[in-house]
Design goal:
Elements (H helix, E strand, L loop, with lengths): L2 E4 L5 E4 L1 H10 L4 E2 L6 H5 L12 E4 L3 H13 L4 E4 L15 E4 L6 E4 L4 E4 L5 H9 L3 E2 L10 H7 L6 H4 L6 E7 L5 E5 L4 H7 L8 E8 L1 E2 L3 E10 L3 H13 L5 E9 L14 E9 L3 H7 L1 H4 L6 E2 L2 E4 H5 L11 E9 L4 H11 L8 E7 L19 E10 L5 H15 L20 H5 L3 H11 L22
Parallel strand pairs: 4-6, 5-6
Antiparallel strand pairs: 1-2, 3-4, 7-8, 8-12, 9-13, 10-11, 10-12, 14-16, 14-17, 14-18, 15-16, 15-20, 19-21, 20-21
Length: about 475
């Protein structure tokens, strides 16, 4: 069967069966054409709004396969997209007509418990990492959903329940193995290819294909003090004001995220509250249980909660606690802002929006970050927003296409209404595909250096299926 593939100059080429067969024979993982086994498994990703058809899929089993894919794409001037976990809201992993490099089979996680390090392949999910590291009483600071891919999370920054205590995921990245646009394998760390190492820590997939991450780990678990405190939404204004005061002085080990939504039918929640608007404090203490009890006392004393289920939980289980609310196959659209604080006007705007949720699955969450993350200088990594701040994700979620307009419009309106209170920055992994012009604001003062590194390692912008950073223009006169 012939394969029609898009080219970087906006055209297309047809690849004959003999060429496809030769490519397949050269790979450990093989290729899939449209309609062949493995093709739909590679192209169907977490966000059901992304329904695209690549021209050909390469299933990578190792670094050699990645090199083969890059070489084939460059030789034929092809558009190439890269899928690891496939969880990113923008859906850049899959592009119509492109050559799709599927890394999802590269899931190895190898832990050295003595050195407290782990080598992780790019197809691994957070659940894979958590289970292997917790077997040794160790953790890597990552996100809050176990089905997220480690590669996309890391390259965008990575934050979650243990970030305030142990830093972002990128702050624990010791080195990376990368296949760059010239097909070369480069090891990058603080001493070798240090500019590439800097760019990978927050700059996304703009600089190459990471085929292995080497992380530092921390002792924690197997249980953590964690859980939910559920309040009526009517108490939200007062509670959020109290929360902002509490977080100003909170122990680094304590992380509190606020979720506002219609209450799901959780077994511990009284049935009369199912489907009603609520405010949920989701809290985790990354330290000793007794210390966690004390650190959470002020939070637990706020208001008159419907239910409080803070208690010791296995860390692996807590990391997966929100998985049922983020299962694959639903339609998703996100909008995000960073805030230095939450003034009363911002709180009122948020609470009003919750009264007009477009779907029972939709929610807004506010994550509080800082602590160890905030003590890393802004220029040390590509990820730029290091201050203690709040990150809002307007997580709009629904099941059928007939609700697209209503749900997306609601998210955009809330985003616009909250803009006056924002810092202008955002977490790149939360940005939808339609915010093309926002990338420069996200990286702020780090953008120029990112463009220069992009020009050094990818001057032709081969890696462009992402929140794209354009290579800096060359100064021909200086050359």
């Amino acid at each position: 069967m012939m394969a029609k593939l898009s080219t970087l100059d906006g055209g297309s080429i047809v690849v004959d069966p003999e060429t496809i067969a030769g490519l397949d024979a050269a790979l450990r993982g093989g290729v899939s054409e449209p309609g062949a086994p493995g093709y739909d498994d590679a192209r169907i990703i977490w966000n059901a709004m992304v329904d695209r058809n690549p021209g050909l899929v390469i299933h990578a089993r190792g670094t050699g396969d990645v090199q083969q894919a890059v070489a084939f794409a460059r030789a034929n001037n092809l558009v190439m997209s890269i899928r690891s976990g496939g969880h990113q809201i923008a859906g850049h992993a899959v592009v119509d007509g492109a050559l799709l490099l599927d890394l999802s089979a590269m899931t190895s996680v190898s832990v050295d418990p003595v050195a407290k390090t782990a080598r992780v392949e790019p197809g691994a999910l957070l659940a894979d990492v958590d289970k292997e590291t917790q077997a040794h009483g160790l953790i890597l600071p990552t996100g809050i959903n176990s089905t997220t891919g480690i590669a996309g999370l890391t390259l965008g920054g990575g934050f979650g329940w243990t970030t305030r205590k142990f830093g972002m995921t990128i702050d624990n990245l010791l080195s990376a193995e990368v296949v760059t646009a010239d097909g070369e394998i480069r090891i990058c760390n603080a001493d070798k290819n240090a500019d590439l190492y800097w760019a990978l820590r927050g700059g996304g997939g703009n600089f190459g294909v990471v085929t292995a991450f080497h992380f530092g780990l921390h002792a924690l678990g197997p249980e953590v003090m964690s859980g939910l405190i559920v309040h009526p939404i009517s108490e939200a204004p007062a509670l959020l004001r109290e929360l902002t005061l509490l977080t100003d002085t909170a122990d680094d080990a304590l992380t509190v995220w606020t979720v506002m939504r219609k209450a799901p039918p959780l077994p511990f929640l009284p049935e009369e509250w199912h489907g009603k608007e609520v405010l949920i404090f989701a809290a985790c203490y990354a330290g000793e249980m007794a210390e966690g009890e004390n650190a959470m006392a002020s939070l637990r004393a706020l208001g008159d909660p419907i239910v409080d289920v803070i208690s010791p939980h296995p860390f692996v289980g807590w990391q997966a606690a929100f998985d049922p609310l983020l299962a694959a196959g639903e339609r998703n659209y996100w909008k995000s802002h960073d805030f230095a604080g939450l003034p009363d006007e911002a709180i009122s705007t948020l609470v009003d929006a919750i009264g007009h949720l477009p779907d029972p699955q939709s929610e807004v969450f506010i994550a509080h970050v800082g602590g160890a993350m905030a003590r890393v200088p802004v220029g040390d990594t590509a990820y730029p927003e290091r201050s203690a701040h709040f990150i809002m994700n307007v997580h709009t979620r629904w099941s059928t296409a007939d609700k697209d307009e209503a749900c997306i419009s609601w998210a955009r309106k809330l985003f616009d209404d909250m803009k006056p209170y924002s810092t202008g920055s955002a977490y790149v992994n939360f940005i939808p595909e339609d915010e093309v012009d926002r990338v420069g604001n996200v990286y702020g003062a780090n953008m120029q250096r990112l463009s220069e590194i992009k020009a050094r390692y990818d001057p032709d912008n081969f890696f462009r299926c992402n929140h794209n950073i354009l290579p800096a223009e060359r100064d021909v006169a200086a050359e």
